[in-house]
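Example record

One chain of 206 residues, shown exactly as stored in the release files.
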Amino acid sequence: MAASIRIGWRLSPCMTALPGDFVGPALAPEDYLHALPAPVRRELARLVVAIAAGEEVEPDVRATMADVTARTTAALSTGPGVIVVRGVPVAGQAPAAVARLYRMIGGALGRPLPQNLEGETLTDIRDTGADPADPDVRLYRTLYLEVAFQPGDLQWLRNGFVLHKRTAYEAPPEPDRKRHLLRLWLALDRLAGGTPRFPLAGGAPR
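Predicted structure tokens for this chain:
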């Protein structure tokens, strides 16, 4: 079974007319899905090979993805708060090179943030076998949009607005075919002023 992600939206009075002020099922694929044009896919395939060879290609990556970067910024700032970019060529590519490509694409959007005490900004996400019935496992059950992941998908979402979780799926027995995601947290200074802040003591965002 293909892996998918469920995306829900925080609904509160402070979010009227802001990104994420949508109910998931009301969104059509064209509202959040952008398929990379064939010329962009071909150029990214060339660049990821160059990355694997040790070449410095970040300016070329940014130039190739300039239109996608603009679309992503718009989706996060004035759109639904989420965008799925489909078609990054990952099949047969070196995982380390793909990870570097991902970091370069993200770097055009914002500043990578550390995700753990070791200061890692790009982390691996693999299934741990957690029981979805466990109350300590994070789940969002209503108002969600289900998006099926494909190899080469990039999903950007605005964490202050969009709730999300990964669904269960049947993992193939071969280790090299198991689901493997990469997570990158970014700070986008140009969006900071419009992001709701959740009080440490709890309660609705401000």
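Notes: Strands lie at 4-9, 33-35, 82-86, 111-112, 122-125, 144-148, 154-157, 162-166, 181-184, 186-187.
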